[in-house]
Design goal:
single chain, about 350 residues, alpha/beta
Length: about 350
């Protein structure tokens, strides 16, 4: 097993995000947003003009600038590294691209045992641009924590097997059922890639990690436990020694929250479909929760936004009283591209103005 370098981390004991993530008492309610750096920001569209998504993800200066943009504009309590879940696959040598309006498209889908054996492994130096981007960020973030991230093995596998985004994941599920040995071999390779990518980020100095299992909600609980959970468990287990908060998130995963909590993360992300009081019952006491404002609410105007923020804050306080270790405010998924940036800024200001739970 590779030895993970352990840099001298920034001392951010007063950061509200880290306090909530680790069972402490934050001095204000922490908030950040998935996809907070993205198409909702005019400065993002300007800096990305004429530059492909993957090209941007391998440019250290762009990684740094785009990651910092929502910190400057919104005053959120954490930055999340600008990247994409397919970056480690591209870096390892898999022929794929991110097609505008479509998403990741894989030239040669992985569907047989021979295909799995041909999947390349990731070497640390192949994501050197990401590491350099993190080092630039640590000089510019001040006392704001930086979250690194990766796609979970199942979600990466779904792109590789389907060849791109899929509504029904029929080829993915067919491999699970028809050829479980090949499936687990593929997930094992992708787990290795995910761990190496996250170790590279940890070695560069990120303050927390999030594992995105974006498509896990397509699975039943039985499917998740048999075909996915062991591999996600290995990701979290092999990164535990770094001592940074680890977040697990998926969309449409209400029926999976208990199992996802078992995978080993410190914080479980909750989408907007499940109340936080239900989430704490499913996840169990002792873990923090993250979420879960519906992204569409940001289109509904100030009164509706305030009503929903106060409702979720009340649910979060109840969840903490029921045993959750803390709460980090977030959307139940990512910022939608047409969201008015001023609505995001106002949301942050309102959340910061609310009293913290006792």
């Amino acid at each position: 097993m590779a030895v993970m370098s352990t840099p001298t981390r920034r001392r951010l004991s007063d950061a509200p995000f880290l306090a909530a993530a680790t069972g402490g008492t934050p001095n204000r309610r922490p908030v950040w947003f998935m996809r907070q750096a993205g198409r909702s920001l005019p400065e993002y569209r300007e800096v990305r003009a004429g530059v492909g998504m993957l090209e941007s993800c391998f440019d250290p200066e762009l990684i740094c600038e785009i990651t910092l943009q929502p910190i400057r504009r919104h005053g959120v309590d954490a930055a999340i590294l600008f990247s994409d879940i397919v970056v480690p696959l591209k870096a390892a040598g898999i022929d794929l691209d991110i097609a505008p309006g479509v998403g990741p498209v894989v030239a040669n889908p992985v569907r047989t045992a021979d295909d799995v054996r041909a999947v390349p492994r990731l070497r640390r130096e192949e994501v050197g641009a990401v590491v350099e981007g993190i080092r630039l960020l640590l000089n510019g973030l001040g006392d704001v924590p930086l979250i690194g991230f990766a796609g979970a093995p199942f979600t990466l596998a779904s792109y590789l097997v389907e060849g791109g985004p899929s509504r029904h994941h029929e080829r993915t599920k067919a491999m699970m059922y028809a050829d479980p040995d090949t499936w687990h071999a593929l997930l094992g390779v992708l787990t290795d890639i995910t761990i190496e990518f996250l170790r590279a980020q940890l070695g560069a100095g990120v303050d927390a990690l999030q594992l995105f299992d974006s498509w896990a909600g397509a699975l039943s609980l039985a499917q998740y436990r048999e075909f996915v959970l062991p591999h996600s468990e290995r990701v979290f287990a092999e990164l535990a020694a770094a001592g940074v908060p680890r977040i697990h998130f998926g969309v449409g995963t209400g029926e999976l929250l208990g199992a996802m909590g078992e995978a080993g993360a410190d914080i479980v992300g909750v989408d907007w479909r499940v109340p936080l009081t239900d989430a704490v019952r499913r996840v169990g006491a002792g873990k923090a929760l993250q979420g879960n404002l519906d992204p569409a609410v940001l289109f509904a105007g100030p009164a509706a936004i305030e009503r929903e923020i106060r409702r979720i804050a009340h649910e979060a306080d109840e969840a903490i009283a029921m045993g959750a270790a803390g709460h980090i405010f977030n959307l139940g998924h990512g910022v939608l591209p047409d969201t008015d940036p001023s609505a995001i800024t106002a949301t942050v200001e309102l959340i910061h103005s609310l009293p913290t739970p006792l």
